[in-house]
């Protein structure tokens, strides 16, 4: 059975094949900003580490934010107390763009993760060239060898890697990598079903030395407080923040 994730990955492979032949003409980006360090610093200070996502649309929800303004969002997230930004750059399924990442990163001091589907180490270099400070590895999308190669490319460039898992087997595979930044996606990328229990289930299997991030389907402060009871203090939130009128106040309401 072909899932949405299979479709996205097939599109990504043909995109990469076409793009890698074009020379990169962008200016050098500024050095990487510490992505995991920014999350850890917020937690060490007794707060929550929030990765606030800039997300125009998604395959499951369609258009989320019609008046989409990445630099304005970046500034509001930073002013509201987010630790990091996440910017979707996939065009075909998420209506994202590299230019959104460039504009968002230039508008604030926060470290930025490129939220996209890595299938080839070439994309890591491309991500750094647009300024990304971190990349995502989706364990469900890759074999062990490919994950290790993509991670090595990121480490070489001084970038952090958020390793995303959805079940205990994927978590075991994630822990074979070097990165100690693990995200549990509460949304199943094959069915779009969201279940916050995924985070509670998997945090029990995560080693103490990992920075553990709950991702997807979080809608407010009550979700975060409930997770904090289980010592989960880092979160990745997109849709519910993107739908707010006052993004800065909503961000502060989550982490302030
Ligand atoms: O909008 P939400 O439900 O707050 O979710 C954000 C984020 O977790 C989600 O965008 C995401 C998590 N992993 C991904 C992988 C690819 C694309 C998107 C994602």
UniProtKB/TrEMBL annotation:
Enzyme Commission numbers on file: 4.1.1.48
Domain Indole-3-glycerol phosphate synthase per the UniProt entry, residue ranges: 5-253
PROSITE patterns assigned: IGPS
Keyword Amino-acid biosynthesis: yes
CDD domains reported in the protein's UniProt record: IGPS
Pathway field: Amino-acid biosynthesis; L-tryptophan biosynthesis; L-tryptophan from chorismate: step 4/5
Reaction it catalyzes: 1-(2-carboxyphenylamino)-1-deoxy-D-ribulose 5-phosphate + H(+) = (1S,2R)-1-C-(indol-3-yl)glycerol 3-phosphate + CO2 + H2O
Keywords associated with the record: Amino-acid biosynthesis, Aromatic amino acid biosynthesis, Decarboxylase, Lyase, Tryptophan biosynthesis
Sequence similarity: Belongs to the TrpC family.
Protein name, as recorded: Indole-3-glycerol phosphate synthase
